[in-house]
């Protein structure tokens, strides 16, 4: 539902010295193309290296493993952090990984599409570690992109103290530009796309950086492949 | 809060701020630190001039086609399931916000930092109606519990207060027993607000930029409060200043690339959330209802004026960080919600000369803001033009001005003191050649710093189809 549009928009048109909304906007030509030149032509290895360096600079933990070792790697990390886990219902985690985590970790909750809002959020709030899978990653800003999905709620990487985000090495792109191009190609957008580029942080008191405000205190990436 | 944040006369306000050495030191430190970080971030990005010309061109294009893009945005957002409401002024916007909350019998709302909600006085209206409103940005929260102190910067609101002060406030108001270490105080607040997030009926946010092509609203934070406010409560209300639109995700790329670097010297903030419609039916968290309130509140007056391009602003705060006047008086000295060079260029046309004539004299016309604005707003030219219009109306005389500016003029007008108080190297080419006390209203005595005069700039802009 839209309320009050006509009067409002017609005032805007008047301010722009016209009486009706144009059928299409004036032509827009980008004066420069600098955004496509950033890390252009970088090899997959260079993108990976840049991504890792930038992640470490902002305090993101980095783990690397092959897809076969993902399950054991996750178990090791989670055990070290201690406590319960909430994880996304994702094809990359389904099967062996989920089974092993369930077996090794006392309280391991898979985001449940059959359960209600309250149950899912309470489990996420109680969990020590949240595990989700990124759609894409960006070398420039050490960013991971998360789509909200029925099997992967927004809470997973927000409520638990520790966030583990799994990144497929081959999805690492140069910068925000490529992520936006990917979003433009989506037929339907998820209700929420989150770009995560670091642990939650603030500098509101005397500009002293403090890691861990409302979101996770610690963020780690597990790079697969 | 509204656009006006102080009832003190300008002179008293300036005296008060100048007499606060702790604040002045804090702001000076903040400027130096954040300016250094910003410069490093843009150096890494490369081609700053190309980036900001592109960003400025995008913003200018949107303003020129605002009726088209606003219509497109509203239609797409509505198609994605959001409820869109167009509000002409502050009372309509805040009033409709209140109506949404009352219909849902809300008793508690959590908010992530938003300038437009401050502008329309939303918190006051909700609180009067008995709804508890909790600011969740750490700095805003600390100011809120500190008897609603006012922000002194649009990005880092509590810059003017130190850790000892906040320890006392937390102890007094919230029973904090810890020390003054920022990390410990932050953890304490985390616990307090976490509870509020999970209990709140409604989440209230601003919107950094809305994407016309998809009806998407966006929120940029470092703390994660923006994500929380849009995840836990069942109802989300978004307030959007009507000019904050980009055509597509491609332009959002450019604007966000500039925003994080300009505001905090980071490549991106920790979190950027892009939200299209309410949660999907199968999603288990996120808002079940999404309301978007598009606010004019004087913006159309700016749009039709010669000052249209000030609406390019992306609210990064860079002009404040670079401003030598801001350095001495902080945001509080301006007495306006939007302070610094942006405030001086915007507020007199957004809210009228009647109340905002004198503030334009705060500026020393050094032109530093023009050199750093990431969307190339001709701030210097706009502030000067306001002063010309005011002077031509015969409202102010140099003598009256001298009395009015008092000690502030001594500090900001003296190049010796000014040189000591600012980084000499950075500003050496901008050393204020105009005492704000004397001759600013005399056209021929203006400094030669800006490369073009306002009317030349304006003529060229028209010729180039609104760009540059």
Describe the structure.
The complex is a heterodimer of chains A (225) and B (468). The model of chain A has no long low-confidence stretch (mean pLDDT 96). In chain A, 29% of the residues lie in helices and 23% in strands. Chain A is globular and about 70 Å long. Chain A has one domain (45-224): NagB/RpiA/CoA transferase-like (Rossmann fold, 3-Layer(aba) Sandwich), CATH 3.40.50.10420. Chain A has helices at 5-15, 44-57, 70-81, 96-104, 117-126, 176-185, and strands at 2-3, 61-65, 85-87, 108-110, 129-133, 136-138, 143-147, 162-168, 172-173, 192-196, 201-202, 210-211, 218-224. The relative contact order of chain A is 0.17. Chain B is an alpha/beta fold. Chain B is built from 22 helices and 10 strands. Chains A and B meet through β1, α1, α5, α6 and β10 of A and α2, α3, α4, β1 and α8 of B. β10 of chain A pairs antiparallel with β9 of chain B, so a sheet runs across the interface.
Structural class of chain A: alpha/beta
Largest sheet properties of chain B: 6 strands, parallel
Rg on CA atoms of chain A, Å: 21 Å
Strand content of the residues of chain A, in percent?
A: 15-25%
> What structural class do you assign from the helix and strand content of chain B?
alpha/beta
CATH class category name of chain A: Alpha Beta
CATH homologous superfamily designation of the largest domain in chain B: NagB/RpiA/CoA transferase-like
Average pLDDT for all residues of chain A: 96
User: Distance N terminus to C terminus of chain B?
Assistant: 34 Å
Low-confidence stretches of chain A: none
Under the CATH scheme, which architecture of chain A would be assigned?
Answer: 3-Layer(aba) Sandwich
Strand order of the largest sheet of chain A: 2-13-8-5-3-4
Helix content of chain B: 40-55%
Average of per-residue pLDDT values of chain B: 88
Parts with pLDDT < 50 across at least 5 consecutive residues of chain B: 396-403, 415-451
Tell me the overall shape of chain A.
Answer: globular
What is the count of helical runs of chain A? 6
